[in-house]
Every structure is written in structure tokens, then in C-alpha cells.
């Protein structure tokens, strides 16, 4: 939406369209009595991105917050592996309420390392591709790449995360039944 509106009418109408669309989605969810948290989060993201683009006067800056978010997320995920607390394992065990037993089980720890590394790779790939396009001021390709890299990369990472969590849960059940 941003790229098309920007090419036809300019940056400020494009930003207004993007922010207005975000507000309409939030309103639509409110009318349908659906949870507003996802819509609000998306609206805030679009508003911050729109602010950055409007402030600089460049459409490419609409993508700046996302680009740097991908960088920070990949660094945090890699750091969690290096600190021997892979974030996938920490979050999964927190959601399951089973504690951090898996940190003492080498196969489970290794699987959570792999799952966390898969997520880090998704964020790093998105950062590298989008940052390169940003540097070359390829606004259209920024949009295409952001969309094209979304579901395929997340699908692969999700398969790895589910594999790791299931294997670790299986080990917990097996070790707990002994």
C-alpha cells in the first residue's frame, strides 16, 4: 500500500494511508469484539515507521524500524545461545511450566540451540537483505522482499522449533517416567 500510494501521490499521503489502514484494522477488530492487542501492536509499528519516514522525507525510512528490530532480535537470540540459555527453550519451558531441566540434558539443550539458531537465521537474513535494499534505496524491492521473506522463512523456522520442543518434551516424559 505504501509503495503504490507513494508512487502516485507522494510520501505524506502514503504514510497517512498506512497509518489510516492500521487504525481501520483496529476499529474493525473492535467492532467484531476481537482481541485488540495484535491490531494495536501493528498500528504502533506502522505509526512509528510512518513517523520515521515523514521525519526524514524518504519512503525507505518506513522500513528502518523493522530492519533494526531484525538485527537486535538476531543478536539477542545468538547471545542466548552463547549464554547457554537458548531463548526457544527458555520460552517453551516457561509456557509449559516445567522449569529449566533441559539445560542439564545435552540432547535437549542442543535441540533448543538449533531451534534458536533457526530463528536467529530468519532475523539475520531479513536484516541483511532489507538493509542492503535500504542502502540502495530500493523501496519497491524492500516491500517485495519483506513480504516474500515472511511466511516461507517463518514456516521453516517453526518446523525446527516444533521439532526441538517435541523432542525435548519427549525426553522429559521419558526421563520423568524412569
Automatic annotation (TrEMBL):
<feature type="transmembrane region" description="Helical">
    <location>
        <begin position="151"/>
        <end position="168"/>
    </location>
</feature>
<feature type="transmembrane region" description="Helical">
    <location>
        <begin position="67"/>
        <end position="92"/>
    </location>
</feature>
<feature type="transmembrane region" description="Helical">
    <location>
        <begin position="38"/>
        <end position="55"/>
    </location>
</feature>
<feature type="transmembrane region" description="Helical">
    <location>
        <begin position="12"/>
        <end position="31"/>
    </location>
</feature>
<protein>
    <recommendedName>
        <fullName>DUF3159 domain-containing protein</fullName>
    </recommendedName>
</protein>
<dbReference type="InterPro" id="IPR016566">
    <property type="entry name" value="UCP010219"/>
</dbReference>
<feature type="transmembrane region" description="Helical">
    <location>
        <begin position="112"/>
        <end position="131"/>
    </location>
</feature>
<keyword id="KW-0812">Transmembrane</keyword>
<keyword id="KW-1133">Transmembrane helix</keyword>
<keyword id="KW-0472">Membrane</keyword>
<dbReference type="Pfam" id="PF11361">
    <property type="entry name" value="DUF3159"/>
</dbReference>
Amino acid at each position: 500500500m505504501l509503495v503504490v500510494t507513494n508512487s502516485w501521490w507522494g510520501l505524506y499521503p502514503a504514510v497517512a494511508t498506512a497509518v489510516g489502514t492500521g487504525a481501520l484494522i483496529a476499529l474493525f477488530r473492535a467492532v467484531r469484539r476481537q482481541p485488540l492487542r495484535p491490531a494495536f501492536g501493528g498500528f504502533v509499528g506502522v505509526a512509528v515507521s510512518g513517523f520515521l519516514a515523514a521525519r526524514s522525507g524518504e519512503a525507505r525510512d518506513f522500513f528502518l524500524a523493522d530492519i533494526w528490530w531484525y538485527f537486535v532480535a538476531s543478536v539477542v537470540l545468538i547471545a542466548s545461545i552463547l549464554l547457554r540459555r537458548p531463548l526457544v527453550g527458555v520460552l517453551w519451558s516457561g509456557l509449559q511450566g516445567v522449569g529449566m531441566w533441559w539445560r542439564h540434558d545435552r540432547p535437549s539443550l542442543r535441540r533448543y540451540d538449533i531451534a534458536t539458531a533457526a530463528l536467529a537465521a530468519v532475523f539475520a537474513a531479513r536484516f541483511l537483505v532489507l538493509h542492503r535494499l535500504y542502502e540502495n534505496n530500493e523501496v519497491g524491492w524492500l516491500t517485495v522482499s519483506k513480504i516474500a521473506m515472511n511466511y516461507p522463512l517463518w514456516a521453516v523456522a517453526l518446523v525446527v522449533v516444533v521439532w526441538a520442543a517435541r523432542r525435548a518434551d519427549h525426553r522429559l516424559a521419558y526421563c520423568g517416567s524412569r
